[in-house]
């Protein structure tokens, strides 16, 4: 059978993403640790993060070698604010040194780091002062950013200020699933506004310290579609998309803050605060209007019957959504785009290779429209602590499996696949036939002579 190939640009970044609390272990001074200790059923089976994937105590170095073994040239990691600033204004140099070691190891292995400065966790002192609801929260975060960037700038120049402001604000302040467990829509918007101001402050601090820095944030883009074509379902879809996606994107573009609940205002300092934008993409949901959902303005969402979906409340596994989101971000911002996360929960590794192949085929398509997608960070390198899902085996995201009792790693088949793609900068029909044969015809229609039809033009 003839071979066909999707080829990526030679300078494309191939990486994976992780976050501090999910892999480091022993993060005892932040709000997630505190939340886990409650053991009140809000984390799956009352799991605690514990040693996680052992990065703090030495596993990081081994895992960085694994990144290199996957032929990767990039990694997105986060640093833990509560380690670096355990009490307000007090800096822990041992923690900063540990991060320096980790970053140096990445450089030694040919891995270009991107550092995320906030990935869902907060120091306890910050929480006690009111956390992200407090109007001074952006200022407190900015002081941390100033210190951390000053200390690490010689080892990193790509910064991601905040991971998924909407996911954090909605799970923690509206859905009540993450600390502090609030269920208040106006708190969601207040927190989101403070996160955007914190991002803007971080952007200018980083550029003052490191003029050549490349600064952005990771925007989780959930894809919403109306469950039916009824005007109410369509309206509900527009509303949830605005609340979750539009409000954040618009303030970054125009400086206009237009929440669904709360006062509109100008936040001009948020304009022009992106050198690139990060896209985290996972799933699609169907949206309906329901009179029973008054607390959420009549908006409910779920997954339509018959489609491939993830476990529990996870949405539809719809890889083409990555293309729609790249298009949207490009149209709105005309900036370089990194796919800062993309992945799926897949305990038995029987979907991951297909997901990677289809997603990358869409990324390739975007690149070939000349949309500036510069890199792809798969979520995740290794299995890790999955927030409210704890260590629920159904929520395994890694290219390497982790045995959390022994810290042993096992390379999954999908990891081998990703290593081949990253190593060659190509996705070929031959690779797909080995790792995701079900997709061969879909991704490469007409790769073999048997598909070749002579059309009689008469
Ligand atoms: C988060 C990660 C998380 C992943 C999978 C993303 O929203 O940034 O921390 O593990 O999704 O759920």
- Poorly predicted runs of 5 or more residues: none
Bound heterogens, unique: beta-D-glucopyranose
First-last Cα distance? 29 Å
As a percent range, the share of helical residues equals 25-40%
What structural class results from the helix and strand content?
A: alpha/beta
What is the radius of gyration?
22 Å
Average pLDDT:
96
Shape type? globular
Task: Please state how the strands of the largest beta sheet are arranged side by side.
Answer: 2-3-4-5-6-10-13-14
Biggest sheet descriptor: 8 strands, parallel, barrel
Number of helices: 15
Q: Would you report the number of β strands? A: 17
User: How much of the polypeptide forms β-strand, as a percent range?
Assistant: 15-25%
Oligomer: single chain
Q: What's the quick description here?
A:
This protein is an alpha/beta fold and 458 residues long.
Q: How would you describe what is shown here?
A:
With 458 residues, the protein is an alpha/beta fold. Helices cover 39% and strands 17% of the residues. It contains 15 helices and 17 strands. The chain has helices spanning 20-23, 31-37, 55-69, 81-84, 93-108, 124-128, 137-152, 165-173, 185-209, 231-254, 321-333, 352-368, 413-424, 429-435, 440-443, and strands at residues 5-7, 13-17, 74-78, 112-118, 158-163, 214-220, 223-226, 256-257, 265-266, 277-281, 284-289, 299-302, 337-342, 373-378, 400-403, 408-411, 426-428. The strands form five sheets. It has an eight-stranded parallel beta barrel, surrounded by five helices. α8 runs antiparallel to α9 and α11 runs parallel beside α12. The chain is globular and about 70 Å long. Bound molecules: beta-D-glucopyranose. Beta-D-glucopyranose (BGC) binds at residues 19, 22, 163-164, 167, 220, 280, 341, 379, 386, 397.
């Amino acid at each position: 059978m003839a071979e066909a190939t999707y080829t990526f640009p030679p300078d494309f970044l191939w990486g994976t993403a992780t976050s501090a609390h999910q892999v480091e272990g022993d993060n005892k001074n932040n709000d997630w640790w505190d939340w886990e200790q409650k053991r009140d059923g809000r984390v799956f089976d009352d799991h605690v993060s514990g040693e996680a994937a052992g990065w703090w105590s030495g596993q990081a170095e081994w895992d960085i070698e694994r990144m290199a073994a996957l032929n990767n040239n990039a990694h997105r990691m986060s640093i833990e604010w509560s380690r670096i600033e355990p009490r307000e204004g007090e800096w822990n140099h041992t923690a900063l040194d540990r991060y320096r070691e980790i970053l140096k190891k990445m450089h030694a292995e040919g891995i270009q780091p991107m550092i995320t400065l906030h990935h869902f966790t907060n120091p306890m002192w910050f929480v006690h002062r009111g956390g992200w609801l407090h109007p001074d929260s952006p200022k407190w975060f900015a002081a941390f950013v100033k210190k951390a960037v000053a200390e690490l700038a010689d080892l990193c120049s790509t910064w991601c200020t905040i991971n998924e402001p909407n996911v954090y604000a909605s799970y923690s302040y509206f859905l009540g699933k993450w600390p502090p467990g609030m269920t208040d829509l106006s708190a969601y918007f207040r927190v989101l506004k403070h996160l955007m101001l914190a991002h803007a402050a971080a952007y200018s601090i980083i550029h003052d310290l490191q003029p050549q820095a490349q600064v952005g944030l990771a925007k989780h883009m959930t894809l919403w579609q109306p469950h039916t074509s009824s005007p109410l379902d369509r309206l509900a879809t527009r509303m949830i998309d605005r609340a979750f996606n539009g409000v954040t994107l618009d303030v970054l573009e125009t400086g206009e803050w237009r929440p669904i609940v709360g006062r509109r205002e100008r936040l001009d300092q948020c304009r022009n605060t992106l050198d690139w934008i990060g896209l985290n993409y996972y799933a699609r949901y169907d949206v309906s209007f329901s009179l029973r959902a008054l607390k959420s303005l009549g908006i409910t969402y779920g997954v339509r019957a018959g489609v491939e979906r993830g476990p529990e409340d996870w949405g539809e596994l719809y890889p083409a959504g990555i293309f729609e989101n790249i298009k949207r971000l490009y149209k709105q911002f005309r900036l370089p785009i990194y796919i800062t996360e993309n992945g799926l929960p897949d305990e038995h590794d029987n979907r991951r290779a297909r997901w990677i192949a289809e997603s990358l085929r869409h990324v390739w398509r975007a690149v070939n429209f000349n949309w500036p997608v510069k890199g792809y960070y798969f979520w995740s390198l290794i299995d890790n602590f999955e927030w409210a899902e704890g260590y629920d085996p159904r929520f395994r995201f890694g290219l390497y499996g982790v045995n959390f009792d022994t810290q042993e790693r096992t390379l999954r088949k999908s990891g081998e696949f990703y290593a081949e793609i990253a190593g060659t900068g190509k996705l070929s029909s031959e690779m797909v036939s080995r790792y995701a044969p079900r997709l061969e015809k879909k991704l490469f229609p007409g790769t073999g002579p048997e598909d070749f039809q002579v059309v009689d033009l008469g």
